[in-house]
Amino acid sequence: xxxxxxxxxxxxxxxxxxxxxxxxxxxxxxxxxxxxxxxxxxxxxxxxxxxxxxxxxxxxxxxxxxxxxxxxxxxxxxxxxxxxxxxxxxxxxxxxxxxxxxxxxxxxxxxxxxxxxxxxxxxxxxxxxxxxxxxxxxxxxxxxxxxxxxxxxxxxxxxxxxxxxxxxxxx
Length: 171
Fold this sequence. Notes:
Layout: E1 6-12, E2 15-21, H1 24-31, E3 43-46, H2 49-57, E4 63-66, H3 70-78, H4 102-170
Antiparallel strand pairs: 1-2, 1-3, 2-4
C-alpha cells in the first residue's frame, strides 16, 4: 500500500517551491538540499487545498509559484533592511601594534655570520689539504727514487757478494 502524500513548501528566491512526497526526507531530496530545512524553519508542511492541488497532481516534482507580484518583489529590493547604527556597536579596540622584527633580524644575521664563518674555515682546510697532498706526492716521489737507488745498490752488493763467494769456493 502506498504511503499518503504530504505537500511541503520552501522559499527559493521570489518563488515558493512546493513538492508532494510521502516524507520530509523525500522533499529535501526533491529540492536538492543537503541541509534539513525543516529544522531551521525554512521549510514547512502545507495543508491549504488551494496550494496543494498543483503538487498533488504531479507527485515528486517541484512546483514553483511566484510569491507576490513583480512590483512587490521590486519594492522589496528597493527598500533593503536598515543597517544597524554604528553607535549601537561596541567600540572597537585599536589594532594591536605590529610585532617587532628585531629578534628575527638578529637571528637571520647570526645565521649569515655562522654560514660565512663555516665557508671560510672550510676553504682554509681545503687549502691545507691541497698543500698536504702536494707534500705527500713530493715525499712519495723522493722516497721512490731513494728506494730505487737502494735496490740498485742492493743488487750490486748482492752480485759482488755472490761473485766473491763463487771465487772463494773455487780457491
